[in-house]
UniProtKB/TrEMBL annotation:
ATP binds at residues 37-44, 154-157, 183, 191-194. Catalyzes the condensation of pantoate with beta-alanine in an ATP-dependent reaction via a pantoyl-adenylate intermediate. The active site is at H44. GO terms for molecular function: pantoate-beta-alanine ligase activity. It is found in: Cytoplasm. The reaction proceeds by a bi uni uni bi ping pong mechanism. PANTHER family: CYTIDYLATE KINASE/PANTOATE-BETA-ALANINE LIGASE, PANTOATE--BETA-ALANINE LIGASE. The gene is panC. It comes from Ancylobacter amanitiformis. Homodimer. This is Pantothenate synthetase.
């Protein structure tokens, strides 16, 4: 296997990106955008594989977006592996890696932030109150900079996916938002760039998160009480050594809380901390 794809180009400025995109569009080619923060793993590669089925050209952005991190969070130690990322993206058939620096995305005087409600309410927002405003603003910028036909996001970050889909509809962004199912380790742990933070003991305990969700989903599917299933899963996550931020059942699309059993699919979502690592996961019930 070649050590890198001859095709991938790394661009650092919006002007270069737009020039390339104009050329592709003039040739009638469909373009897919895969936004990432780098430290690429098989979950990201799956987004690229799906992108290849939807478009002729793929742009992957690699940008550790400072505005979605709170001052107390891990911006400074977030894994940065650009050389390996370019190898993986090239091997996955990506045409362009867009790797802007912070000043390119947030020039002096930058003063605009997208304000969110709906699916952004609760869950992550209760623990990361400014997070989705940062995500939505940078994703809107990336979509406007690239002008893709389709943009792909992982279901691993399920609330993020719903927030972005809602934003694209609300702001009439001319792009199709596509969600890609979560890629997991054989023991069920969702792949995540932050898994590198896990100690060996924490890594051994981590699959309990997915197991607890699976158990709750099975109980609800079998007709069990949602609140009871959620309570059992919370206890299982805590017993595995996690400090729980939340574990909730929500309506899958709106992410509205579930007061009583209603029509439509349900999603179970969890965030919990083990050691120095905060993990999230989710599962569909129906
Ligand atoms: N296991 C996975 N399966 C499918 N998609 C994934 C997976 N992990 C990440 N993604 C998606 O890849 C895109 C980029 O995510 P990001 O670069 O933040 O990686 P990450 O692994 O989610 O990192 P983090 O540890 O910060 O959550 C997002 O749309 C995210 O949902
Ligand atoms: C969508 C995203 C690339 C925006 O910075 C980020 O939140 C992520 O990697 O999931
Ligand atoms: N994958 C989500 C990005 C974040 O947690 O900041």
């Amino acid at each position: 296997m070649p050590s890198s794809s001859p095709r991938i180009r790394t661009l650092h400025t919006v002007a270069e990106l737009r020039a390339q995109l104009r050329a592709w569009r003039a040739g009638g080619e469909r373009v897919a955008l895969v936004p990432t923060m780098g430290a690429l793993h098989a979950g990201h590669v799956e987004l690229m594989n799906v992108a290849r089925t939807l478009a002729q050209r793929i742009v992957v952005s690699i940008f550790v977006n400072p505005t979605q991190f709170a001052p107390t969070e891990d911006l400074g130690r977030y894994p940065r592996t650009l050389a390996a990322d370019l190898e993986k993206a090239g091997a996955a058939g990506v045409d362009i890696a867009f790797v802007p620096d912070v000043a390119e995305m947030y020039p002096p005087g930058f003063a605009t932030t997208i304000s969110l409600a709906g699916p952004a309410l609760g869950l992550e927002t209760d623990f990361r109150p400014t997070h989705f405003a940062g995500v939505a603003t940078v994703v809107a910028k990336l979509i406007l900079q690239t002008g893709p036909d389709v943009a792909l996001f992982g279901e691993k970050d399920y609330q993020q996916l719903q927030v972005i889909a809602r934003m694209a509809r609300d702001l009439d962004l001319p792009v199709e938002i596509v969600g890609v199912p979560t890629v997991r380790e054989p023991d069920g742990l969702a792949l995540s760039s932050r898994n590198v933070y896990l100690s060996a003991a924490d890594r051994a305990a981590a699959p309990a998160l997915h197991r607890a969700l699976q158990g709750a989903a099975a109980a609800i599917r079998a007709g069990g009480d949602i609140a009871e299933a959620v309570a059992t899963a919370r206890a299982q996550v805590s017993a595995a050594g996690f400090a729980l931020d939340y574990l909730e059942a929500r309506h899958a699309r709106s992410l509205a809380p579930i007061a009583a059993r209603e029509e439509g699919p349900i999603r179970l979502l969890v965030a919990a901390r083990i050691g120095a690592t905060r993990l999230i996961d989710n599962i569909g019930v129906d």
